[in-house]
Amino acid sequence: MRNRKRLVFFLVFLIAVSIVAGLFAYEPLFKKWTGFRSWQLGLDLAGGSFLIYEIDLNGVAPVDRDSVVKGLRDVVERRVNLFGVREPKVYTEESAGANRLVVELAGISDVGEAIAQIGETPFLEFREIVSVEGDMAVFSPTGLTGRYVKGAQLGFDQITREAQVYLEFNDEGAGIFEEVTGRNIGQPLCIFLDGEIRSMEEDCPTVQAQISGGKAQITGRFSVDEARAIVERFNAGALPAPIKLINQQTIGADFGKDALTSSVFAGAVGTAVIILFMLIYYRRFGLFAVVALLMYIALTLAVFKIIPITLTLAGVAGFLLSVGMAVDANILVFERTKEEIKKGLNRLSAIEEGFRRAWPSIRDSNITTMISSIVLYYFTSSFVQGFALALFIGVVMSMFSAITVTRTLLRVFTVPKT
To answer: Where is the Protein export membrane protein SecD/SecF C-terminal domain (predicted)?
Structure first.
């Protein structure tokens, strides 16, 4: 009797949590009540801009290229976040031996605005003069670039009152700067910004002595607004390597809305077909599976929203696949249970034995799926990652649904009341 009361209490608790989760996942109602966060929709569902940049690594040593590419991704992501873009996706990929940076900006339909947000970050580098041919100087990169910038400040020349940019390098950059100034004593050291010299040849600062401490300044006849903009961009993150926009696409909000409507409709139809099959084929057992399935859907969608994950069409596909796997676990249990009933066991014993015998198959199939999801998530990018993440969470929740929810339902409605 006491055991039955505990089971009933636990079942009521699960149902209550599932109802709250369902209300939480149903955004129009829950957001109206609480103002809580909206669903995070990906580029294909919300519309937005899709940009591909080619990364120029010609001036980067091969041993440093991986770290430079990673640093570039981090810098661009940080810059995009400063503009308040919702759930941006920034990742790198290799294509035909070229390194590329891909930026997905959901909700941004103005491509020009998106390009301005990303591409205006200056690429700074110090170059030394290696030879002079007539009136032309031949410059050579020193390896000291904006990658090593720790911070920037706006300042003014005490005599001319011209705007200047004061830079401070990190520890590694300070070491390079000290080495560069040490070998160029008495020689000019020129500053280039976005591939263009920011001071005339005759105005390139001449190194008077080896400079330690990692501090430098950029002079180039800036206006105050220009200098301030450069400071802001460097403080947001200076690009460690130049990038060039090679492709841009815009996905309209209407297209995304249609895709979202279609995916929700497809999910509803697929779930309805599964429910109908379970009710017709398994009857009473099928009813328990349907209740567990609805609770699973509510709980899983709530988890998606709490984390939150950016929902894409691929993510929707991963979730729907996990719905099928949740029902598959119930089918294994029910078939095992039917076999035990045919052997002469009573219903309660048959259910317990059915779960015990079905568990190894459920466990192994779900673990292999989770391993596949982890591999897909860490070794792919963009939409495939969304599919993998949604599938992984869905499979974990489906195991909980099949083993905990379905089992509790069967125990409550099978345990004798006396």
So the answer is: 243-412
Annotated domain spans of the chain = 2-39+252-412, 48-120+246-250, 124-237
Tens-place pLDDT, residues 329-354:
888 888 888 888 888 888 888 888 88
DSSP letter string over 119-136? HTS--EEEEEEEEEETTE
Distance CA 176, CA 172 (A): 6
Lowest-pLDDT range, 102-111, 155-164, 177-186, 364-373?
102-111
pTM here? 0.62
CATH class entry, domain 48-120+246-250 = alpha beta
Q: Is the peptide bond before 240 cis (omega within 30 degrees of 0)?
A: no
Which residues, other chains included, contact 328 with Cβ-Cβ below 8 Å and sequence gap of 6+? 365
Q: Which pLDDT does position 83 carry in this prediction?
A: 57
CB 40 within 8 A of CB 304: no
Q: What is the CATH number of domain 124-237?
A: 3.30.1360.200
- Third-level CATH fold of 2-39+252-412: Multidrug efflux transporter AcrB transmembrane fold (1.20.1640)
Which residues are registered as beta bridge partners of 189?
128
Helix (H) or strand (E) holding 92: strand 89-95
Mean pLDDT of the chain: 80
Q: Which residue has the tokens 């697929």?
A: 270
